Amino acid sequence: MTPNFILSQYPISRSISYTCPFCNRGGLTTYVTHRTPFKSVTNERKILEVAVVECPNPGCHEFAIRAKLLRQKKSRSDRTQHEPTETGESWVLRPRSTAKQVPNYVPEAIRRDYEEACLIRDLSPKASATLSRRCLQGMIRDFHDVKKGRLIDEINAIKEKVDPITWNAIDGLRTIGNIGAHMEKDVNLLIDVEANEAQLLISLNEYLFKEWYIHRQERTQMMKAISTAAQTKKEAKNGGLKQSPST
Ligand SMILES: [Zn+2]
Fold first, then answer.
1. Cβ-contact 90, 67 below 8 angstroms
2. Does one domain contain both 182 and 85?
3. Could you tell me if 128 and 62 lie in one domain?
4. What CATH number did the domain enclosing 209 receive?
């Protein structure tokens, strides 16, 4: 029988620090990797590796599942199996995309563009970049209340409101998103968007969700809590004064 040292070790469990894509909370959890070998008719050996992570947080416990295809090379001389190599093919099975949970006080149209940009990232980075561009435009219009028709004018209008590094990145998102949004003057000129570039645009939108919407919400809640606490104290003081006419 062929020695099967590598596969016999599976499933392998290891402890990882994890942020759950379902509830956005972090925690320490177990990452379990399973490997299933198979052989094609051409005698090519492949391994399907499936990794499963469970969210450790109470009330969630959702599973995230990823799979990838590995190539197994077998040496003719020693008949032993070597650590398989990457084929470059991998899939996010659950959740369907890497989209993070966006709070529902962000308008639905903006959230949908973001989620679709994540969903289509690997299949069509160019379409993903176009959706990220739309998502950005939606945020500028809603959050900054700027409506000028052309995104370039809207981005120029917020130049004084954001720091220069972020502003340059926002303008970069517009430029890359334009590749899918508008046809080049020369239709034979092919400019593509890579998946890692599409991911950068997704990450920028995630940053802006946080910087603009989430921070505003947190600030409003904290200020309201302080005002409510102050009001309660004031009422208690007034009530106390009424009850003690001697002071
Ligand atoms: Zn969770």
1. yes
2. no
3. no
4. 1.20.120
